[in-house]
Design a protein that fits this description.
The chain is built from three helices and no strands. The chain is mainly alpha-helical. Keywords: Membrane, Transmembrane, Transmembrane helix.
Length: 156
């Protein structure tokens, strides 16, 4: 420090010691409060950044989990659908044959009563098979209940 400045400060201390002490006290208090505010603001912003990043990561993990479940359901449907379609097609063909027999039997009147009865029975069985095939399609398309997933850690 230059000598003139130091001499001016010494003179000020000697002439107004109480005023200098008061200014020094307030200046020290302002520096403490200002420093605390600056440090608190910086740590608060850092904490907020960490929380936003954690929330974003949890959101992305949940989206990935839902996409995996959807992919698994599509694979299950893809595996089961051809078998169900074959069963339904077989039931439809049986029903068509039974209907043709019923029509033939009905056109042959006379002794056709028993033949029509047989055809009706066959048609009834075909209808039952078609119903079973429809129920099988429903079971195949309906996904098996998934075990409840554990909640992400950020929800606790």
């Amino acid at each position: 420090m230059p000598t003139r400045i130091r001499e001016a400060i010494d003179r000020l201390y000697r002439t107004h010691p109480r005023a200098v002490a008061l200014v020094e006290g307030w200046l020290l208090l302002a520096l403490i409060v200002g420093g605390s505010v600056a440090i608190g603001r910086q740590s608060g912003l850092s904490s907020a950044d960490v929380q936003v990043a954690a929330l974003s990561a949890a959101h992305q993990a949940e989206q990935q989990r839902l996409m995996d479940i959807n992919r698994q359901l599509m694979l299950i449907i893809q595996d089961r659908l051809p078998q169900i379609a074959d069963t339904a097609q077989g039931a439809a063909e049986t029903a068509q044959v039974a209907a043709e027999k019923a029509a033939t039997a009905a056109s042959r009147a006379g002794a056709a009563g028993s033949t029509a009865n047989t055809a009706a029975t066959t048609a009834k069985k075909a209808a039952q098979q078609a119903g079973q095939a429809a129920r099988a399609v429903d079971r195949a398309v309906t996904p098996a209940p998934a075990a409840p997933a554990s909640a992400p850690e950020w929800l606790n």
